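Table S2 (continued). Query chain:
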Amino acid sequence: MQNNDKHLHEPRIQITKRGREAMPWYKAWGVRAAAIVLALIVCAVIIVFLTGYNPIRVYSEMLKGTFGSSRKIWNTLQKLAMLLCISLAVTPAFKMKFWNIGAEGQTLVGGLAAAACMIYFGETVPGIILFPLMAASCMLAGMIWGIIPAYFKAKFNTNETLFTLMMNYVAMQIVSFCIVFWENPKDSNTVGVINRMTEGGWLPTIFGQKYLLNILIVAVLTVAMYIYLRYSKQGYEISVVGESENTARYVGINVKKVILRTMALSGALCGIAGFLLVSGTDHTINTNTVGGMGFTAIMVSWLAKFNPIVMALTSFLIVFLERGAGEIATTFQLNESVSDILTGIILFFIIGSEFFVQYKINFRKGHKEEKV
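Corresponding output:
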């Protein structure tokens, strides 16, 4: 009688984490691909319902917005490179379970350092000295912005999520102050192009493409980060600390040192991203220079499971969706909110598919059990 009661109270559906029984990689990517297809179908229905346009034509415009011309292709690659660079920056911290939400501010102060070097040294110091000086200054600025919350986390166990988030707003106010200090424009959130006539401090073009150097630098950083996380001693220590700080201390790892070192690396990479944005892309600085990429990078890193190579694919997907959605909003004269809705639906399905990759669902029928 007791066994029957126990059986009656067993749930019909049980959700368990896969753990060591991880889904094979080809099945995992199949689930993600199916999620994207399903998202596109749902978006097509919404497009027809809201606008009456042919969804196939709308999707063709999305492709045209990304690959419609050589200029659009280079702009897409540039956007991809910048998003990937910031995603690489936050990855070591996330793998260590240090929730660095401050990449936006760390990149912004790196860009501010680049702008300062361009303003004060761009027209007097030769490029062979200026560019290393700018890169070092940007990395140092980003490192400082990353080490500050890391120190308080290591020393006083503060909440790094709130700390790094608030540092973003401090960085924005510092940039606003510097803009007013340098040029005192009517709009305190913008500044003119720096060294427009002399192009002092502008990264050089390669083969006639001004974004190619940025893309090559980020490609090298991607390979270097992959090697660092996968094969270096420091990468191993990051993984151990991320799994369990107590285990890390037991095997002799200095957890505080790892936290400070990792956040210094994260901030330095954000500083490089700021350098590339100001010196190689915009040639100016304002409070919107990073444009929210510091927050988007969190999603890119998480979706890629902290794998720098896979991040290139997830970065491309995000950039494609953003540029494509913006293109259809312009072409069909739709409210920009429509493009945001479509992008949000697709990302929702992609993120939701990770549930089925990470967890398995057991359906019980009597004494039998089926797994999904």
